[in-house]
Amino acid sequence: MSARPLALCGVLTALAVVLLCLGGILPAAVLCAPILAMIALLPVLEELGPKTAGTVYAAVSLLALLLVPNRETALVYLFFGWYPILRPRIAALPSRLLRLLARLAVCNITVLVLYGLVLRLMGLTADLPESVWYLNAALLAAGNVVFLLTDATLARLTNLWHWKLKKHLYR
Predict the structure, then answer these.
(1) What is the largest CA-CA distance in the chain?
(2) Other C-beta atoms within 10 Å of 60: how many?
(3) Quick check: 142 pLDDT over 70?
(4) How far is CA 6 from CA 10, 48, 55, in A?
(5) Do 29 and 79 touch, CB atoms closer than 8 A?
(6) Which of 16, 59, 116, 119 meets the CB 3.0–4.6 Å disulfide criterion with 37?
(7) What is the DSSP-derived secondary structure letter of residue 1?
(8) 84 and 38 in contact (C-beta within 8 Å)?
(9) Residue 64 contacts residue 20 (beta carbons within 8 Å)
(10) Phi, psi (degrees; rounded to nearest 5) at 94
């Protein structure tokens, strides 16, 4: 790997980790910071391919688990940060309904595994039967809406990268 792609990977890895650290410091940014860190992965994915983007994702995830003060922010990135790498494959599906179902399946499976693991590790599973089921369903539905908005934002930012930003980086 030459110096320019290596520098791009290093700088964007550092940017993603800083964004995740800020999300750990600001309580309102617990779920916003992983989305911003995913956006930092887009130039690597578009310029160097999914293999290099996967390496950057792994580095950011490892550094986030070690450095981010809020573990939930780091875990949300760990579980959702790989989605920009998967997104082009989902976008290539032939049917619009199939693409929507695939996106929702990825979101729901990831959320259920993430919070199932977190609740089990924290020993909070005894409180779940007592909780109001429709509140949990509403939170999951809101999470699906945010995930679909994130997907649309990633698509628009990928187009923005190709049309406007790429030429400023590679002069």
Answers:
(1) 60
(2) 27
(3) yes
(4) 6, 10, 12
(5) no
(6) 16
(7) -
(8) yes
(9) yes
(10) -70, -35
Q: What type of residue sits at position 106?
A: V
Distance, CA of 64 to CA of 126 (rounded, Å): 29
Q: Are 14 and 129 in contact (CB under 8 A)?
A: no
Distance in angstroms (rounded) separating the CA atoms of residues 37 and 14? 10
Instruction: Report the residue count for the chain.
Output: 171
pLDDT at position 124 is: 64
Per the structure block, which two tokens stand in for 96?
Answer: 């619009």
Task: Name which of 64, 36, 49 is nearest 9 in CA terms.
Answer: 49
Is 34:26 a contact under the CB 8 Å cutoff? Answer: no
Q: Which amino acid is at 143?
A: G
pTM beyond 0.85: the answer is: yes
CA gap 47, 124 in Å, rounded: 43
The mean-pLDDT minimum among 50-64, 90-104, 126-140 falls in 126-140
Q: Which two tokens stand for residue 117?
A: 């693991």
User: What are the pLDDT digits (tens) for 149-166?
Assistant: 999 999 999 888 777 777
Q: 57, 51, 31, 39: which is closest to 155 by C-alpha?
A: 39
Place of tokens 């520098």: 7
In whole angstroms, what is the distance from residue 75 CA to residue 94 CA? Answer: 32
